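As agreed, record passed on underneath.
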Amino acid sequence: MPQRDRLVEDLIEAHFDVAVSIARRYRNRGIDTDDLEQVALLGLTKAAHRFDPGAGHDFLSFAVPTIRGEVRRHFRDCGWTVRPPRRVQELQARIGRAQDELPARLGRAPRASEIAEHLDVTTDDVVEALSVDGCFTPAAFETPVGDGTATVGELLGSPDAAFGAVEASVMLEPAVRRLSARDRRIVYLRFYEERSQREIGDAVGLTQAQVSRVLARILADIRDVLGSEAPVA
């Protein structure tokens, strides 16, 4: 056992830089590089303890997938800012392995359709899984998009006052429909044409004081119809 322990330590020390290099391939994805290196070294340690030289494989061909798998599991469990469904996470891990294996066979980066065929899944599933890569670290609002003339933040929607107006119109329409023709005209003059009470009085043949009382009654009637005590603007 002491001899095996020394051999394990020798393997770890000899391949320390390999583990660090693998970890750094995953930096800038939302997890601290120091944490990634620790996870990669844990994978190296596991590989060194599990390695069987009698199996006919060299250590690197056994250790690299183990280290990479450990790092990817860490991302899967700890690195999501927005967590997609489990099936998508698992498929993305399989895609990552395929992206490491297929270039040696194809001599180039694999297409989504080739990855799908290799994994026996649909191309749509592969595209969906690849699209969640940004869930590790979402783009900042200041990130340029397209030709660089706009940022993510500039392309995002913002509250639109028109939506409130549409909602109010839909809610008020049944209540306004119950008003008399004169009352509807007063509402139109006051809230659509924004006339003063004196101007409304001149238009409908009432005094300013009468217009004020009529408006108060109309608003009270509308509140009753809507079943709310909140003021109607």
Observations:
- The chain has twelve helices and two strands.
